Amino acid sequence: MKVVLSSDHRGAAAIRGLAERLRQEGHDAEVMGDCELATVDYPERAFDVAQAVASGKADKGVLICGTGIGMSIAANKVKGARAAVCHDELTAQLSRSHNDANIVCLSADLLGQRLIEKIAEIFIKTPFEGGRHARRVRKIGAIENGLLPSSVKE
Question: Less Cβ crowding at N or C end of the chain, within 10 Å?
Fold first, then answer.
């Protein structure tokens, strides 16, 4: 699976470790941008990853900043990106199975490296369930296109 990753300066060490782990598991993991700078503005990194995922150049994305929140807000501004902040294995699994999230946003400050790697692993391997959840994801798409979510029927 093609996974694009990036971080701000606070997540630089975590993203390097995660990228290496994903490569060891057989994924094509690409770190986008220079995450090692003294200061990195997270919206730029979030945009790069969200664009790659939304355009189909990558299957999934991983973003790491201090809390994961800023990355999520910025990434979700890109049409087609569904970025979820996850803090544990359950939120990673549900963000994929129920919400069809395509980008996971993680906290460098609140999660250790082992948990970051576990959350990313679960996020990447969990399929979308579809069914009633598909209608809800289509409603998110309607909002993204300036339509009322109620315009989406079964």
Answer: C
Spans of all domains in the chain: 2-129
Q: Which of 8, 108, 15, 111 is nearest to 66 (CA)?
A: 108
Tell me if residue 65 is catalytic. yes
pLDDT band at 35 (very low <50, low <70, confident <90, very high): confident
Let me know if 86 is a catalytic residue: no
Model pTM?
0.96
- DSSP string for residues in 108-151: TTTS-HHHHHHHHHHHHHPPP--THHHHHHHHHHHHHTT--GGG
* Catalytic position from the list 9, 35, 65, 86: 65
Q: In this structure, which CATH number among 3.40.630.10, 3.40.50.300, 3.40.640.10, 3.40.1400.10 belongs to the domain 2-129? A: 3.40.1400.10
